[in-house]
Write a structure and sequence with these properties.
The protein folds into two domains: about 250 residues, Growth Hormone, Chain: A (Up-down Bundle); about 220 residues, Growth Hormone, Chain: A, CATH 1.20.1250. Helices cover about 75% and strands about 0% of the residues. The longest helix has about 30 residues. The chain is an all-alpha fold. α5 packs parallel to α7, α14 packs antiparallel against α22 and α18 runs antiparallel to α19. InterPro entries: MFS, MFS_dom, MFS_trans_sf. This is Caffeine resistance protein. It is found in: Membrane. GO terms for molecular function: fluconazole transmembrane transporter activity. It is a multi-pass membrane protein.
Length: about 525
């Protein structure tokens, strides 16, 4: 099949959501020409002939009215798309992820100007960073389930939320008070969250499991790149124009990504594509009972069960499951340290080494380089170890096996914190402390990849809830760290090493949590056997 389902127009996006949420019936066949262009192949035509009934259906046979991919053209499935199209969509998702994550950290380069302009203190202005993080920790609880509903899919959620995200940058750039800035930053994080919540799912929609690991890892690199690039581009905007241009730049960057999505990125949710085919067949055959399996499942789901899956299950799993709880805290600490650098770097490189604003922004590139360093080794591990085991064991592995990769990375965290804290002195070349942040980034990247793979292997049935709970926990932790970081460094560090004792305190905490990957490797199986949710 040569023709791909065309992207919906803007009014079609709102119509689908309106019809689903209000329960409106399908429009008459007279308006069928307004539907998205979905090609019906020979299988669909035979299905139309076999399932059509001019008299209607008083007692429908649900099994006979189910539309599956066996009934339609399988070449329309995202996994059967041309490789170039899949690469293009993957690239667009990665660009969207970078643009969204840059939105969190880009404000850090203009904090001093914002403080002077709005006459507020450091904690108040740092809330502009923290509330953005809180926003994208809460957003996935709402948007991730929406993308799984067949009537909605992923593309509509991407486009609508991204359009709102772009519009929010305008009042943010124009606002004059902290009371307006803070809620706008929260809303920007909230509506920017679909890229962070469903980007990996979009990639796995298209790629077979053999290749999905590589592209999900590449997408994760973009998630690490965004926070590292934000301060640099923010500094350039502040020096060239003013702090307001940080948000104008963010608006233009996001608008460019929006155009790529709107014009050229098709829907990747197989359930949504199949739903649209069934929708057309209902009108052709005059059979209103034709449904897809996912459509039938959601139509029979009670609201209470849906709310349970969206809000309660992530919290229940995060509290009751020792594996989930321990990794939430561990990954939360690792993730929080990244946002701690946004307070530590200005103290060290601007106040101690007297870097300019742009030079200080360049120091964050060490985090980006650090995430790139272990990537070839991780790809080698995927190619030689993980993927062959998945292929030879019908997609199953012992979950604890993947934790081995995290063992050397676990050593990096306390070492890098002590290293950074006590080499950040005027008498020691700044290159030494920069190397420590590079190794931190390399270790954190490996930790995230292996721990997420471990969670996916341990809780395959509830992985969406596990990831939602993890995202909420680590993001809330990360949002809190910038608020107390400067006070901690200023009140504890000696003048010759201003971040020394602060990093020592954090280093001790990481030493306490250091054994978590090793303990899970040894006792993970026993914990999974005792669990009501994990696979054993």
């Amino acid at each position: 099949m040569d023709q791909i389902i065309k992207s919906s127009e803007a009014f079609e996006l709102f119509r689908y959501i309106r019809d689903f949420t209000t329960g409106r019936k399908e429009r008459s066949s007279a308006s069928f020409l307004d539907e998205p262009d979905v090609v019906v192949d020979k299988n669909e035509k035979s299905l139309r002939d076999s399932k059509s009934n001019s008299e209607g259906f008083n007692e429908p046979d649900k099994s006979a009215n189910l539309i599956t991919w066996e009934d339609v053209d399988i070449s329309d499935h995202p996994k059967r798309w041309p490789t170039l199209l899949k690469l293009y969509v993957t690239t667009c998702v990665c660009l969207l992820t970078i643009a969204t994550y840059m939105g969190a950290s880009i404000i850090t380069s203009g904090l001093d100007e914002i403080k002077d302009h709005m006459h507020v203190g450091n904690v108040a202005v740092m809330l502009g960073l923290s509330l953005f993080i809180v926003g994208y920790s809460v957003g996935p609880l709402f948007f991730s389930p929406l993308t799984e509903i067949p009537q909605i899919g992923r593309q509509k959620v991407y486009l609508i939320t991204l359009a709102i995200y772009i519009c929010l940058q305008i009042p943010t750039a124009l606002c004059s008070g902290i009371g307006a800035l803070l809620p706008l930053r929260f809303l920007a994080g909230f509506f920017g969250s679909p890229a962070l919540a469903t980007g990996g799912a979009t990639i796995t929609d298209m790629w077979d499991s053999k290749y999905a690991q590589y592209f999900v890892t590449s997408w994760s690199l973009c998630a690490f790149s965004g926070p590292a690039l934000g301060p640099l581009f923010g500094a350039i905007m502040v020096v060239a124009k003013s702090w307001r241009w940080q948000f104008w730049f963010l608006m233009m960057l996001s608008a460019a990504v929006f155009i790529l999505f709107f014009l050229f990125v098709p829907e990747t949710s197989a359930s949504n594509i199949l739903y649209r085919k069934a929708q057309r067949l209902r009108k052709i055959t005059n059979n209103p009972h034709l449904q897809t399996p996912d459509e039938l499942q959601y139509s029979q789901m009670k609201i209470s069960k849906l709310l349970m899956e969206i809000f309660l299950r992530p919290i229940i799993l995060s509290i009751r499951e020792p594996i989930v709880l321990s990794l939430n805290l561990y990954l939360g600490l690792v993730y929080s340290l990244m946002y701690l650098w946004f307070e530590a770097f200005p103290i060290v490189y601007m106040e101690l080494y007297h870097f300019t604003l742009i030079e200080s922004g360049l120091t964050y590139l060490g985090i980006l380089i650090g995430t790139l360093l272990p990537t070839p080794f991780y790809f080698y591990y995927l190619h030689k170890v993980l993927i062959p085991k998945l292929t030879n064991n019908s997609g199953r592995i012992v979950p604890e096996e993947v934790l081995r990769v995290s063992f050397p990375a676990a050593f990096f965290f306390p070492v890098c914190l002590f290293w950074f804290g006590w080499t950040a002195q005027r008498s020691i070349n700044c290159f030494s402390s920069l190397v420590s942040t590079l190794l931190y980034a390399a270790g954190s990247f490996l930790i995230f990849q292996t721990c997420y793979q471990y969670l996916a292997s341990s809780y395959p049935k509830y992985i969406a809830s596990v990831y939602a709970g993890n995202n909420l926990c680590r993001s809330l932790m990360a949002a809190s760290f910038p608020l107390f970081a400067r006070a901690m460094f200023k009140n504890t560090g000696p003048s010759y090493a201003p971040v020394g004792w602060g990093c020592t305190i954090l280093g001790i905490i990481t030493c306490i949590m250091f054994p978590i990957p090793f303990l899970l490797y040894k006792y993970g199986l026993k914990l999974r056997i005792r669990s009501n949710y994990a696979t054993n």
